[in-house]
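User: I need a structural model of D-3-phosphoglycerate dehydrogenase from Salipiger mucosus DSM 16094 for a docking pre-check later this week. Nothing fancy, just the predicted structure tokens so I can convert them on my end. Input:
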Amino acid sequence: MPTDFTVLTTSPGFATRGDHAEQLARAGAHLLRHAQDDAELPELVAGARYLVAGLVPVDARLLDAAPGLRGVLKHGVGLDSIDIRACSQRGLPVLNTPGANASAVAELALGAIFALWRNTVPGHLSVTSGGWDRRVGRELGGATLGILGFGQIGRALAGLARGIGMAVIAHDPWADLETARAMGVTLAEREAVLRGCDVLSVHVAGGPDTRGLIGVPEIAMMRPGTTILNFARGGIVDLDALHAALETGQIGRGRARRLRDRTPQTSRIRSFPIRACSSRRIPGPTRTSRCCAWARWSSTTS
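Assistant: Understood. Predicted structure tokens for D-3-phosphoglycerate dehydrogenase:
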């Protein structure tokens, strides 16, 4: 089948479900997959009309290598890996798929809360090592969930939490008061959320403005034993501060996202297998969310 243009993707999960690749082919597109070798990327992007970006940074240098590029599309939501200014200077639109993975992230966040409060990880480690540890857990009904960032993910998590009897307080300067009221969610200042929650879940956008958003001063405001979860970008929660708080017991449990490297900071968090839950970057990608992202991407670009 003849092709009219090239679509280069740096996201391993793009167009891998159902007949997505065939849909591209029928539209006249040749799908080219980047094999994560950065050295070859400028050569590959040189002939592309559209770039579907994953986690590989899209900067001015890469854009200069693509004179025929007509648009950059994020396979996901966060745009922190894309130089928006560089794209604007070249007249390139930047699109993403907001909300496509909201349910997936919210479900995983709630699952992490259950796992941490009911000591699922310690129980598993005990049984697999030949033990029979019977740690007493805590129930979530009646506890207070604090959410920083009341966007689509934050709202999805709030709905799940309300469904199991949790009180929910949230902070977001752009949140709609009537929407929050209809969901039974109380909007409050950030300090009030930090001081008033039993579980804090972070769902703000990544970038310079939010890096280190939760550090030593913020953790000091929280109740002793509070649980912190970061399902947003890495760096929003200061890992050194989290480690220190886990050591002293100021933070009872923690869940850190995107521990992809082996820096001293991430290694120290791994030293708390009983009270800290960490993983590689997995919150958003599910079969359903990828299909939803594809539907939004295809409708936007058609």
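Before docking, keep this in mind: Confidence is low (pLDDT under 50) at residues 257-267, 271-287.
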